[in-house]
Amino acid sequence: MTIKTNQRVEFCDITAAVNEFLQKEQAGDGSVLLFVPHTTAALTVNEGADPAVRGDLAAFLEKLVPHTGDYKHAEGNSDAHIKASLLGSNLYLPVKNGKLVLGFWQAVYFVEFDGPRTRRLQLQLLT
Amino acid sequence: MTIKTNQRVEFCDITAAVNEFLQKEQAGDGSVLLFVPHTTAALTVNEGADPAVRGDLAAFLEKLVPHTGDYKHAEGNSDAHIKASLLGSNLYLPVKNGKLVLGFWQAVYFVEFDGPRTRRLQLQLLT
Amino acid sequence: MTIKTNQRVEFCDITAAVNEFLQKEQAGDGSVLLFVPHTTAALTVNEGADPAVRGDLAAFLEKLVPHTGDYKHAEGNSDAHIKASLLGSNLYLPVKNGKLVLGFWQAVYFVEFDGPRTRRLQLQLLT
Protein backbone atom coordinates (compact mmCIF):
# COMPACT_ATOMS: atom_id res chain seq x y z
CA MET A 1 0.00 0.00 0.00
CA THR A 2 1.26 3.49 -0.86
CA ILE A 3 0.63 6.56 1.30
CA LYS A 4 1.32 10.10 0.12
CA THR A 5 1.92 12.51 3.00
CA ASN A 6 1.67 16.29 2.69
CA GLN A 7 3.25 17.71 5.83
CA ARG A 8 6.29 17.04 8.00
CA VAL A 9 4.14 15.53 10.74
CA GLU A 10 0.85 13.98 9.74
CA PHE A 11 -1.59 11.42 11.14
CA CYS A 12 -3.12 9.58 8.17
CA ASP A 13 -6.25 7.57 8.98
CA ILE A 14 -5.72 4.35 7.01
CA THR A 15 -8.64 2.36 8.50
CA ALA A 16 -10.73 2.45 5.32
CA ALA A 17 -7.75 1.64 3.09
CA VAL A 18 -6.81 -1.38 5.23
CA ASN A 19 -10.42 -2.63 5.14
CA GLU A 20 -10.40 -2.22 1.36
CA PHE A 21 -7.25 -4.34 1.16
CA LEU A 22 -8.87 -6.99 3.38
CA GLN A 23 -11.95 -7.14 1.19
CA LYS A 24 -9.89 -7.38 -1.99
CA GLU A 25 -7.95 -10.27 -0.41
CA GLN A 26 -11.23 -11.90 0.74
CA ALA A 27 -9.73 -11.97 4.21
CA GLY A 28 -12.47 -13.74 6.19
CA ASP A 29 -11.46 -14.28 9.84
CA GLY A 30 -7.94 -14.02 11.21
CA SER A 31 -5.52 -11.20 11.74
CA VAL A 32 -3.41 -8.78 9.75
CA LEU A 33 0.16 -7.58 10.26
CA LEU A 34 0.86 -3.94 9.36
CA PHE A 35 4.52 -3.01 9.02
CA VAL A 36 6.18 0.30 8.13
CA PRO A 37 9.41 -0.27 6.15
CA HIS A 38 10.69 3.23 7.01
CA THR A 39 12.59 4.60 10.02
CA THR A 40 10.92 7.99 10.38
CA ALA A 41 7.25 6.93 10.33
CA ALA A 42 5.13 4.79 12.65
CA LEU A 43 1.74 3.22 13.32
CA THR A 44 -0.72 3.79 16.15
CA VAL A 45 -4.34 3.10 17.02
CA ASN A 46 -6.24 5.95 18.64
CA GLU A 47 -9.47 7.93 18.52
CA GLY A 48 -10.83 8.68 15.05
CA ALA A 49 -13.76 10.94 15.98
CA ASP A 50 -12.28 14.18 17.35
CA PRO A 51 -9.27 15.44 15.32
CA ALA A 52 -8.13 17.25 18.48
CA VAL A 53 -6.96 13.92 19.92
CA ARG A 54 -4.36 13.36 17.20
CA GLY A 55 -3.55 17.08 17.34
CA ASP A 56 -2.81 16.80 21.06
CA LEU A 57 -0.70 13.67 20.50
CA ALA A 58 1.28 15.39 17.72
CA ALA A 59 1.80 18.49 19.88
CA PHE A 60 2.91 16.38 22.84
CA LEU A 61 5.45 14.46 20.74
CA GLU A 62 6.77 17.68 19.18
CA LYS A 63 7.34 19.18 22.64
CA LEU A 64 8.88 15.96 23.97
CA VAL A 65 11.21 15.47 20.97
CA PRO A 66 11.78 18.86 19.29
CA HIS A 67 12.72 18.97 15.59
CA THR A 68 15.96 20.77 16.35
CA GLY A 69 18.11 19.93 19.34
CA ASP A 70 21.43 18.55 20.47
CA TYR A 71 21.42 15.61 18.04
CA LYS A 72 24.47 13.93 16.47
CA HIS A 73 22.71 12.49 13.38
CA ALA A 74 23.51 14.96 10.62
CA GLU A 75 20.36 14.71 8.51
CA GLY A 76 18.26 16.94 10.77
CA ASN A 77 15.58 14.31 11.35
CA SER A 78 16.75 12.61 14.54
CA ASP A 79 13.52 13.65 16.23
CA ALA A 80 11.57 11.69 13.60
CA HIS A 81 13.65 8.55 14.23
CA ILE A 82 13.06 8.85 17.98
CA LYS A 83 9.30 9.47 17.63
CA ALA A 84 9.05 6.45 15.30
CA SER A 85 10.62 4.16 17.93
CA LEU A 86 8.32 5.54 20.65
CA LEU A 87 5.14 4.68 18.71
CA GLY A 88 6.51 1.60 16.95
CA SER A 89 6.53 0.41 13.36
CA ASN A 90 4.27 -2.61 13.52
CA LEU A 91 0.71 -3.48 14.50
CA TYR A 92 -1.08 -6.78 14.62
CA LEU A 93 -4.85 -6.46 14.43
CA PRO A 94 -7.77 -8.90 14.58
CA VAL A 95 -9.93 -9.38 11.46
CA LYS A 96 -13.49 -10.70 11.25
CA ASN A 97 -15.65 -11.14 8.14
CA GLY A 98 -12.96 -9.41 6.10
CA LYS A 99 -12.92 -6.28 8.31
CA LEU A 100 -10.70 -4.95 11.10
CA VAL A 101 -12.24 -5.61 14.52
CA LEU A 102 -11.77 -2.19 16.13
CA GLY A 103 -13.39 -0.51 19.10
CA PHE A 104 -16.12 2.04 18.41
CA TRP A 105 -13.82 5.09 18.69
CA GLN A 106 -10.70 3.54 17.17
CA ALA A 107 -8.95 4.37 13.93
CA VAL A 108 -5.62 3.09 12.59
CA TYR A 109 -3.08 5.80 11.85
CA PHE A 110 -0.01 5.83 9.67
CA VAL A 111 2.07 8.52 11.36
CA GLU A 112 4.47 10.55 9.22
CA PHE A 113 7.27 12.26 11.17
CA ASP A 114 9.53 13.45 8.33
CA GLY A 115 7.31 14.27 5.36
CA PRO A 116 6.08 15.13 2.94
CA ARG A 117 7.05 11.83 1.29
CA THR A 118 5.59 8.89 -0.58
CA ARG A 119 5.54 6.00 1.88
CA ARG A 120 4.89 2.29 1.71
CA LEU A 121 3.01 0.11 4.17
CA GLN A 122 3.33 -3.68 4.17
CA LEU A 123 0.25 -5.72 4.95
CA GLN A 124 0.30 -9.44 5.58
CA LEU A 125 -2.79 -11.50 6.11
CA LEU A 126 -3.01 -14.44 8.48
CA THR A 127 -6.16 -16.49 8.30
CA MET B 1 -12.58 -10.79 28.35
CA THR B 2 -13.99 -8.12 30.63
CA ILE B 3 -11.87 -6.05 33.02
CA LYS B 4 -13.35 -3.85 35.73
CA THR B 5 -11.03 -1.02 36.77
CA ASN B 6 -11.36 0.91 40.02
CA GLN B 7 -9.13 3.96 39.64
CA ARG B 8 -8.31 6.54 36.99
CA VAL B 9 -4.88 4.99 36.39
CA GLU B 10 -4.47 1.32 37.20
CA PHE B 11 -2.14 -1.51 36.20
CA CYS B 12 -4.20 -4.73 36.16
CA ASP B 13 -2.16 -7.94 36.11
CA ILE B 14 -4.06 -10.11 33.62
CA THR B 15 -1.48 -12.92 33.33
CA ALA B 16 -3.60 -15.49 35.21
CA ALA B 17 -6.78 -14.52 33.34
CA VAL B 18 -5.06 -14.88 29.96
CA ASN B 19 -3.69 -18.30 30.97
CA GLU B 20 -7.20 -19.33 32.06
CA PHE B 21 -8.51 -18.31 28.62
CA LEU B 22 -5.74 -20.31 26.94
CA GLN B 23 -6.56 -23.42 28.97
CA LYS B 24 -10.29 -23.09 28.26
CA GLU B 25 -9.48 -22.85 24.55
CA GLN B 26 -7.07 -25.82 24.83
CA ALA B 27 -4.46 -23.59 23.23
CA GLY B 28 -1.51 -25.98 22.93
CA ASP B 29 1.48 -24.35 21.20
CA GLY B 30 1.36 -21.16 19.16
CA SER B 31 0.80 -17.53 20.00
CA VAL B 32 -1.94 -15.22 21.18
CA LEU B 33 -2.91 -11.72 20.07
CA LEU B 34 -4.14 -9.36 22.81
CA PHE B 35 -5.92 -6.25 21.58
CA VAL B 36 -7.51 -3.37 23.52
CA PRO B 37 -10.57 -1.99 21.66
CA HIS B 38 -10.39 1.29 23.60
CA THR B 39 -8.42 4.50 23.04
CA THR B 40 -7.56 5.40 26.64
CA ALA B 41 -6.15 2.06 27.83
CA ALA B 42 -3.12 0.01 26.81
CA LEU B 43 -1.11 -3.18 27.28
CA THR B 44 2.42 -3.70 28.53
CA VAL B 45 4.66 -6.47 29.81
CA ASN B 46 6.78 -5.65 32.86
CA GLU B 47 7.84 -6.90 36.28
CA GLY B 48 5.14 -8.61 38.32
CA ALA B 49 7.05 -9.14 41.58
CA ASP B 50 7.61 -5.68 43.11
CA PRO B 51 4.54 -3.40 42.87
CA ALA B 52 6.93 -0.42 43.06
CA VAL B 53 7.92 -1.06 39.43
CA ARG B 54 4.44 -0.39 38.08
CA GLY B 55 4.10 2.46 40.60
CA ASP B 56 7.25 4.08 39.22
CA LEU B 57 6.03 3.60 35.63
CA ALA B 58 2.65 5.14 36.46
CA ALA B 59 4.31 8.08 38.26
CA PHE B 60 6.70 8.63 35.34
CA LEU B 61 3.85 8.66 32.80
CA GLU B 62 1.78 11.02 34.97
CA LYS B 63 4.68 13.47 35.18
CA LEU B 64 5.43 13.15 31.45
CA VAL B 65 1.80 13.57 30.35
CA PRO B 66 -0.11 15.44 33.11
CA HIS B 67 -3.87 14.94 33.41
CA THR B 68 -4.51 18.65 32.92
CA GLY B 69 -2.57 20.73 30.44
CA ASP B 70 -2.75 22.74 27.25
CA TYR B 71 -4.89 20.18 25.38
CA LYS B 72 -7.45 20.90 22.65
CA HIS B 73 -9.54 17.73 23.08
CA ALA B 74 -12.51 18.85 25.18
CA GLU B 75 -13.22 15.68 27.15
CA GLY B 76 -10.42 16.20 29.67
CA ASN B 77 -8.72 12.86 28.94
CA SER B 78 -6.18 13.80 26.27
CA ASP B 79 -3.42 12.60 28.56
CA ALA B 80 -5.00 9.14 28.60
CA HIS B 81 -5.11 9.01 24.78
CA ILE B 82 -1.43 10.02 24.62
CA LYS B 83 -0.32 7.51 27.27
CA ALA B 84 -2.26 4.77 25.43
CA SER B 85 -0.36 5.45 22.19
CA LEU B 86 2.99 5.49 24.03
CA LEU B 87 2.48 1.99 25.49
CA GLY B 88 0.43 0.60 22.60
CA SER B 89 -2.84 -1.31 22.36
CA ASN B 90 -1.68 -4.68 21.13
CA LEU B 91 0.62 -7.47 22.22
CA TYR B 92 1.56 -10.69 20.52
CA LEU B 93 2.84 -13.34 22.91
CA PRO B 94 4.20 -16.88 22.53
CA VAL B 95 2.18 -19.80 23.97
CA LYS B 96 3.44 -23.27 24.92
CA ASN B 97 1.43 -26.15 26.39
CA GLY B 98 -1.56 -23.84 26.71
CA LYS B 99 0.33 -21.22 28.76
CA LEU B 100 1.99 -17.88 28.06
CA VAL B 101 5.75 -18.23 27.69
CA LEU B 102 6.93 -15.35 29.86
CA GLY B 103 10.22 -14.56 31.51
CA PHE B 104 10.55 -15.29 35.24
CA TRP B 105 9.79 -11.71 36.37
CA GLN B 106 7.25 -10.84 33.68
CA ALA B 107 3.54 -10.14 34.03
CA VAL B 108 1.09 -8.90 31.41
CA TYR B 109 -0.69 -5.68 32.35
CA PHE B 110 -3.89 -4.14 31.10
CA VAL B 111 -3.25 -0.46 31.78
CA GLU B 112 -6.23 1.78 32.51
CA PHE B 113 -5.58 5.49 31.94
CA ASP B 114 -9.13 6.91 32.22
CA GLY B 115 -11.05 4.77 34.71
CA PRO B 116 -12.83 3.56 36.57
CA ARG B 117 -14.59 1.76 33.71
CA THR B 118 -15.61 -1.66 32.53
CA ARG B 119 -13.22 -2.57 29.72
CA ARG B 120 -13.00 -5.29 27.14
CA LEU B 121 -9.93 -7.14 25.92
CA GLN B 122 -9.89 -9.14 22.70
CA LEU B 123 -7.90 -12.35 22.60
CA GLN B 124 -7.18 -14.28 19.45
CA LEU B 125 -5.43 -17.59 19.38
CA LEU B 126 -3.04 -18.67 16.63
CA THR B 127 -1.92 -22.26 16.74
CA MET C 1 18.84 -16.93 20.93
CA THR C 2 21.38 -15.62 23.42
CA ILE C 3 22.68 -12.05 23.41
CA LYS C 4 25.66 -10.92 25.46
CA THR C 5 25.58 -7.20 26.25
CA ASN C 6 28.63 -5.22 27.35
CA GLN C 7 27.31 -1.91 28.65
CA ARG C 8 24.43 -0.68 30.80
CA VAL C 9 22.62 0.73 27.76
CA GLU C 10 23.34 -0.87 24.40
CA PHE C 11 21.63 -1.16 21.02
CA CYS C 12 22.53 -4.59 19.59
CA ASP C 13 21.83 -5.00 15.87
CA ILE C 14 20.34 -8.51 15.68
CA THR C 15 19.20 -8.38 12.04
CA ALA C 16 21.84 -10.81 10.77
CA ALA C 17 21.32 -13.21 13.70
CA VAL C 18 17.55 -13.29 13.13
CA ASN C 19 18.09 -13.97 9.41
CA GLU C 20 20.49 -16.78 10.30
CA PHE C 21 17.80 -18.30 12.55
CA LEU C 22 15.24 -18.02 9.73
CA GLN C 23 17.56 -19.78 7.28
CA LYS C 24 18.34 -22.55 9.75
CA GLU C 25 14.58 -23.06 10.25
CA GLN C 26 14.03 -22.96 6.46
CA ALA C 27 11.45 -20.27 7.13
CA GLY C 28 10.13 -19.61 3.61
CA ASP C 29 7.31 -17.01 3.60
CA GLY C 30 5.36 -15.90 6.67
CA SER C 31 6.20 -13.89 9.74
CA VAL C 32 8.27 -14.14 12.88
CA LEU C 33 7.50 -13.15 16.46
CA LEU C 34 10.39 -11.76 18.49
CA PHE C 35 9.84 -11.62 22.24
CA VAL C 36 12.12 -10.45 25.07
CA PRO C 37 11.54 -12.51 28.25
CA HIS C 38 13.14 -9.78 30.41
CA THR C 39 11.73 -6.63 32.01
CA THR C 40 14.68 -4.26 31.53
CA ALA C 41 15.34 -4.80 27.82
CA ALA C 42 13.32 -4.12 24.68
CA LEU C 43 13.11 -4.37 20.89
CA THR C 44 12.90 -1.67 18.27
CA VAL C 45 13.32 -1.24 14.52
CA ASN C 46 15.24 1.83 13.39
CA GLU C 47 18.03 3.02 11.10
CA GLY C 48 21.01 0.72 10.80
CA ALA C 49 23.30 2.91 8.67
CA ASP C 50 24.36 5.88 10.83
CA PRO C 51 25.26 4.86 14.44
CA ALA C 52 24.38 8.45 15.47
CA VAL C 53 20.68 7.58 15.13
CA ARG C 54 20.77 4.98 17.89
CA GLY C 55 23.10 7.24 19.87
CA ASP C 56 20.54 10.06 19.68
CA LEU C 57 17.75 7.67 20.69
CA ALA C 58 19.76 6.38 23.66
CA ALA C 59 20.65 9.93 24.75
CA PHE C 60 17.01 11.03 24.45
CA LEU C 61 15.79 8.09 26.58
CA GLU C 62 18.51 8.69 29.20
CA LYS C 63 17.47 12.35 29.51
CA LEU C 64 13.75 11.45 29.58
CA VAL C 65 14.15 8.67 32.17
CA PRO C 66 17.35 9.29 34.17
CA HIS C 67 19.12 6.35 35.81
CA THR C 68 18.77 7.91 39.26
CA GLY C 69 15.66 9.72 40.36
CA ASP C 70 12.71 9.71 42.71
CA TYR C 71 11.92 6.00 42.20
CA LYS C 72 10.38 3.62 44.76
CA HIS C 73 11.72 0.35 43.28
CA ALA C 74 14.75 -0.46 45.42
CA GLU C 75 16.97 -2.19 42.85
CA GLY C 76 18.15 1.03 41.22
CA ASN C 77 16.96 0.07 37.75
CA SER C 78 13.47 1.58 37.63
CA ASP C 79 14.56 3.69 34.66
CA ALA C 80 15.33 0.48 32.73
CA HIS C 81 11.87 -0.95 33.45
CA ILE C 82 10.24 2.29 32.26
CA LYS C 83 12.35 2.51 29.07
CA ALA C 84 11.52 -1.15 28.32
CA SER C 85 7.78 -0.45 28.46
CA LEU C 86 8.17 2.66 26.27
CA LEU C 87 9.85 0.71 23.44
CA GLY C 88 8.03 -2.59 24.02
CA SER C 89 9.16 -6.19 24.37
CA ASN C 90 7.73 -7.75 21.24
CA LEU C 91 7.93 -7.34 17.48
CA TYR C 92 6.14 -9.13 14.71
CA LEU C 93 7.94 -8.96 11.38
CA PRO C 94 7.20 -10.18 7.85
CA VAL C 95 9.42 -12.88 6.33
CA LYS C 96 9.95 -13.69 2.65
CA ASN C 97 12.19 -16.40 1.15
CA GLY C 98 13.54 -17.10 4.63
CA LYS C 99 14.60 -13.48 5.24
CA LEU C 100 13.18 -10.52 7.17
CA VAL C 101 11.38 -8.09 4.85
CA LEU C 102 12.82 -4.80 6.10
CA GLY C 103 13.03 -1.35 4.57
CA PHE C 104 16.35 -0.30 3.04
CA TRP C 105 17.54 1.64 6.13
CA GLN C 106 16.04 -0.62 8.78
CA ALA C 107 17.77 -2.81 11.33
CA VAL C 108 16.27 -4.77 14.23
CA TYR C 109 17.70 -3.84 17.63
CA PHE C 110 17.73 -5.71 20.91
CA VAL C 111 17.96 -2.84 23.37
CA GLU C 112 19.71 -3.46 26.69
CA PHE C 113 18.78 -0.98 29.45
CA ASP C 114 20.35 -2.65 32.51
CA GLY C 115 23.46 -4.49 31.34
CA PRO C 116 25.92 -5.88 31.00
CA ARG C 117 24.06 -9.20 31.10
CA THR C 118 23.51 -12.38 29.14
CA ARG C 119 20.04 -12.10 27.64
CA ARG C 120 17.67 -14.40 25.84
CA LEU C 121 15.43 -13.66 22.88
CA GLN C 122 12.52 -15.89 21.92
CA LEU C 123 11.77 -16.36 18.23
CA GLN C 124 8.68 -18.04 16.92
CA LEU C 125 8.06 -18.73 13.27
CA LEU C 126 4.65 -18.51 11.65
CA THR C 127 4.43 -19.76 8.09
Q: Mean of residue pLDDT of chain A?
A: 97
The spatial strand order of the largest sheet of chain A comes to 6-5-3-9
Structural class of chain A: alpha+beta
Pair of chains with the largest interface and how many residues each contributes = A-B, 28 and 28 residues
Unreliable spans of chain A:
none
Cα end-to-end separation of chain A: 19 Å
Could you tell me the number of beta strands of chain A? 9
Largest sheet of chain A: 4 strands, antiparallel
Question: SSE layout and pairings?
Answer:
The structure is a homotrimer of 127-residue chains.
Chain A: E1 2-4, E2 10-13, H1 15-24, E3 30-35, E4 41-47, H2 51-64, H3 78-87, E5 90-96, E6 99-100, E7 106-112, E8 118-120, E9 122-126
Antiparallel strand pairs in A: 1-8, 2-7, 3-5, 3-9, 4-7, 5-6
Structure description:
The structure is a homotrimer of 127-residue chains. Chain A has 3 helices and 9 strands, in the order E-E-H-E-E-H-H-E-E-E-E-E. The first copy, chain A, is α+β, with helices and mostly antiparallel strands and 127 residues long. Chain A has one domain: YjbQ-like (Jelly Rolls, Sandwich), CATH 2.60.120.460. Chain A has a 4-stranded antiparallel β-sheet with strand order 6-5-3-9, with helices on one face. The first copy, chain A, has a 3-stranded antiparallel β-sheet with strand order 2-7-4. In chain A, strands 1-8 form a two-stranded antiparallel ribbon. In chain A, strand 5 (90-96) and strand 6 form a beta hairpin. The longest helix of chain A has 14 residues, at 51-64. Chain A is elongated, with a radius of gyration of 15 Å. Chain A starts with a strand and ends with a strand. The mean pLDDT of chain A is 97. The A-B interface holds A 31, 44-47, 50, 52-53, 55-57, 59-60, 64, 86-88, 91-94, 101-106, 126 and B 33, 35-39, 64-65, 70-75, 78, 81-82, 84-86, 88-90, 92, 120, 122, 124, 126.
